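Backbone geometry:
***
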Amino acid sequence: MARLTNDPSHFADEVTEGFVAAHADRVRRVPGGVVRTQPLARGRVAVVIGGGSGHYPAFAGLVGPGLAAGAVMGNVFASPSAQQVRSVARAADRGAGVLLGYGNYAGDVLHFTEGAERLEADGVQVLSLAVTDDISSAPAQRAGDRRGVAGDVIVFKIAGAAAEAGLDLAGVHRVAAAANDRTRTFGVALSGCTLPGAEQPLFTVPAGRMGLGMGIHGEPSVGESDVPTADGLADLLVERVLTELPTDVDAPSGQRAAVLLNGLGGIGHEELFLLYRRVAQRLAEADVTVVDPEVGALVTSFDMQGVSLTLTWLDEELEGYWCAPADSPAFRRGRLSAARSGGVDDSSQDGDSLTVDLEGEAASALPAASAGSRALAEVVAGVLARVSDLIDAHAEELGRIDAVAGDGDHGIGMQRGTRAAAAAAAEVAGRGAGAGTLLQVAGEAWADKAGGTSGALWGAMLREVGRTFGDQDVPDAQVSADGAAAAAAAVHRRGGAVVGDKTMVDALAPFVETLQGAVADGSALPDALAQAARAAQRGADGTADLLPVRGRAKTHGERAVGTRDAGAVSLALIAGLVATWA
């Protein structure tokens, strides 16, 4: 289908610009996302939510009194970076701490966790909650592995109301966690979605069929069935959600529940109301009392024709927060008194000081470096430019591979990351940076602009190599091998993957092992890197036979067997280029 866009790489930024222009009375832009135009009263907990773009109204549309204080906005279908998390949270914080809320996806967990660590280093109190409501993505005994889908809205709404009521940070987290534990979602997709600038849909569903349990990024379904009537689909949704109750709910009969019938973007309002007619009937038959239902598109996936049903089983406390007033661009309920809707509008002062602070960090004086390290930095900057060109040439293929069992954004994410790293490297090389500093700056830029799992991991790798190299000595073969080992250790710390999990580690681990062995045997660095690159390529090729164990598609990865892992392929490509440079 036709889609309005300019440069697809600027899509998320331009959407944010337009959103803020349309809702300037409600939100203002800060680096990394948006916060309320009129900030929280001082002493209130700031609920800061976030995730990738492409899901509006999630997440920016949920910023406002009674809901979130800010939203961190990543690129299309990619988690925001740790720096974005830090930036938005610092702008939203009013002295009582920050609750970070996000969906349970690998990239979001990596970046929000690192963002929380940076905030704590800044002296900001932080607690985090990853929403896990999608019952199709893992069995009940592994509920902590589940994805966060439309249940995000209910959990964030309850958390925002608890913050508005004046609970402290621990109290807001307790309430949000309770809501998450009592939230269940099941969804279906009747069609795929098309990313901005893409000529083909991210995935397809056969005509007359629907994917059961399809994820909001195109993650594979748990099965397919014929498309039923509207009543038949409503029956399916209710039956699936009622099959699993929270541990403290014995039976649906006599229970009260918040209900969200969510459209994924390509389903019209009339169709949703048609479905909800039968959903309401079935819940009444089960003796479930529906409390303030929501019917509409609140967590979307571009033009995906799909729908999900969410139930949150309420107790008295949760019901009070669910029904409490809220006022955001996309979610409004009741009327908030002026006294509770915010504090004195000192947003300009807070926002300006934040922007100066963060930009000042980026432009701070560079550490002193030796002539040899500065010369090496210029070479490394050139290599990063070639890496960016290499990824540009392979981005479409990397996306196609990733779409087999993932969300198809790996090529786009690698493009954003490598371009940002190359630009940052060129800038600091021109200012006389040493090799270590250049690699750390490039790693930070890669992580910040790419987002997603790959952004977090490549950013960490470059930073570790930079720390190992330093800015004084020109690294020899042993120091280079040590840097590669430090990079691999950083990947394992953050992602936890091991060889055989069908991730980039399947190429990274043999690269590092071979490089270390060749250096130990006395090989010169060029020869050692060439051997290591060949090992990385073999590792990447071998992922075709593996079943995913980690990452977004780990629960439905059977369809990935026969296709190489995109992260391993991109690492092998870059390893091959680095070997030719040496």
In short: The CA atoms of residues 186 and 241 lie 6 Å apart. Residues 366-581 form a domain with the Serine Threonine Protein Phosphatase 5, Tetratricopeptide repeat fold (CATH 1.25.40.340). The chain has two domains: 8-324, 366-581. Residues 344-362 have pLDDT under 50 and may be disordered.
